[in-house]
Amino acid sequence: YSCGHRENGRLGHGNCKVCWSPMLIEEIAKIKITGLAAGESHSLLLSSGTVFSFGCGKDGQLGFGNEVDQFVPKKVKSLLK
Q1: Which terminus has fewer CB within 10 Å in the chain: N or C?
Q2: HEC string for 9-68
Q3: How confident is the model at residue 79 (pLDDT cuts 50, 70, 90)?
Q4: How far apart are the C-alpha atoms of 81 and 66, rounded to whole Å?
Q5: Rounded mean pLDDT of 1-5?
Q6: Is 81's pLDDT higher than 80?
Q7: 43: three-class secondary structure by DSSP
Q8: Is pLDDT at 17 greater than 90 in this prediction?
Q9: What dihedral do alpha carbons 53, 57, 62, 66 form, nearest 10°?
Q10: Taking the alpha carbons of 41, 49, 29, 1 in that order, is the dihedral positive or negative?
Q11: Cα 62 to chain center, whole Å?
Q12: What is the largest CA-CA distance in the chain?
């Protein structure tokens, strides 16, 4: 679940609307999250050794080798074994 301002996809809901109440992040609803880290405009999630990231891609902080915003959680493939 996440809520707040959605600029740059920072909430993981797939759009940029404001979300005033906690809303399920559908993309990862069935995945057990065991850790998380949140920056000002991006988030990282950990599940069974897999890292997902979403939000503002400025400066490459999402781990995809570019500066593209990610609006739903996506696996960081460079970290997969």
Answers
A1: C
A2: HCCCCCCCCCEEEEECCHHHCCCCCCEEEECCCEEEEEECCEEEEEECCHHHCCCCCCCC
A3: confident
A4: 21
A5: 83
A6: no
A7: strand
A8: no
A9: 130
A10: negative
A11: 8
A12: 37
Q: Quick one: tokens of 4?
A: 């707040």
Length of the chain: 81
Contacts of residue 8, Cβ cutoff 8 Å, sequence gap at least 6? 16, 41, 42, 55, 56, 57, 58, 69
CA of 36: how far to CAs of 17, 47, in Å?
23, 9
State the Cα–Cα distance between residues 61 and 41, nearest whole angstrom.
10
Amino acid at 33: I
Query: Rounded to two decimals, what is the model's pTM?
Result: 0.86
